[in-house]
Amino acid sequence: MKVEARKMKIGVLLVAVLVVSFLVVYFYENDVERKNGIVAEAGNTYALAYPVFGQADSAGASFLDEEAGISIYLNVGLSIDLSKAKTVYRTIETDTSNYTIGSIALPSLPESEDVHCFVYKDGWIVVYYLKYEPVGKIIDWSYWSGGQLTKNKLQVGLEQMCNALGVSVAGAKYYHFQYPYANRCMMIIEDLVCLPGYESKDNFTITIPSEFTVYERSWSNFAQYSYYGSYFKIDGNTIDSISSETPLTNYGTLTVAQLSPDVVHTVSILAYYGQGWAYDSCIVLTYQEP
Q1: Whether 12 and 63 share a structural domain
Q2: Which end of the chain is more exposed for a tag (fewer CB within 10 A), N or C?
Q3: Does residue 1 register a pLDDT over 60?
Q4: How many domains does the chain have?
Q5: Within 13 Å and on the Cβ side, how many CA atoms surround 276?
Q6: Interval 209-222: pLDDT, tens
Q7: Which residues contact 114 (CB under 8 A, 6 or more apart)?
Q8: pLDDT for 249 beyond 50
């Protein structure tokens, strides 16, 4: 039933187009106190499209419906040597003659951030996090540059697999296996560089229209250095705080009450005794665009 519902929606999902400017206006109204000359950024937006596995579905890919969450996938269009694929894994989870599943270590990140990867011999590669993990987990702030996240953790994992197999990552698409009707994922980012002094802060406002069906509200929060504390807040309520002398990223989910539709919410970052350190917070919306 679940898979059939997805197949019925595939026409809609595949024709989803990137209308970032429309959604930025709709979801986000800039209301920044420009103390440090920093403004909130409208981050990255991904279209979500259902992967039509075909033969791979009956041969093993169907497990993704129950296990996987946010994913990036690719069909490389040629036969894959599974023995090469297995060299990429930190841990092999499943090994058959048709496909293999394992976890891939990411550069400079702990094992808890490993991505999972499904490789099918006829060309399919799917890199994913598990269904209970928030979409915000894919953010790697080391790739924040020029007002954009140039890569995410799923992309890095896919690149590692494709490099080992000698194939291109071109044409990769995204999908969330637990939200089959979601066709968009938007990241709304606040970037703060803390100047010397007692307190630095910045904020933006966000309004989610009720005609958009939001399946998940998640977040990611980063502090480069925050011995005296940094805070990520929504409407004055602390969502996350970091006190660390080394770079640290936290992530999680928000309730509907914390980010309800048709309400203007204020999202803010505060940091204390900064000396040019960077602080970044992101709200990630996974939703169906009407």
Answers
A1: no
A2: N
A3: no
A4: 2
A5: 0
A6: 999 999 999 999 99
A7: 90, 91, 103, 104, 105, 106
A8: yes
For 170, the token pair is: 């071109």
> Which one-letter amino acid corresponds to residue 150?
T
Any idea which of 16-25, 63-72, 179-188, 207-216 has the lowest mean pLDDT?
16-25
Task: State the burial class of residue 258 (Cβ atoms within 10 Å of its Cβ: 0-12, 13-18, 19+).
Answer: middle
**Bridge partners of residue 28, in order along the sequence:** 206
SS3 81: coil
CA atoms of 283 and 260, how far apart (whole Å): 13
Q: Last residue of some domain: 176, 198, 228?
A: 176
Model's pTM, two decimal places? Answer: 0.84
Residues 72 and 32 in one domain: no
Percentage of the chain beyond pLDDT 70 is: 82
Q: Based on the domain organization, do 34 and 89 belong to the same domain?
A: no
Dihedral (Cα; 128, 81, 6, 256), 10-degree rounding: 0
Cα(192)–Cα(271) distance, integer angstroms? 9
Q: Kindly report the length of the chain.
A: 290
Cα–Cα distance, 286 to 23 (Å, whole number): 13
**In a shared domain, residues 18 and 127:** no
Confidence of residue 48 (pLDDT cuts 50, 70, 90): very high
Which of the 8 DSSP states describes residue 269? E
Assess whether 198 and 222 both reside in one domain: yes
SS3 call for 162: helix
Residues 74 and 154 in one domain: yes
pLDDT band, very low/low/confident/very high, at 13 (cuts 50, 70, 90): very low
184 vs 204: CA distance, rounded Å: 21
Residue range of the domain that includes 63: 55-176
3-state class (DSSP) for residue 135: helix
Same domain? For 93 and 10 the reply is no
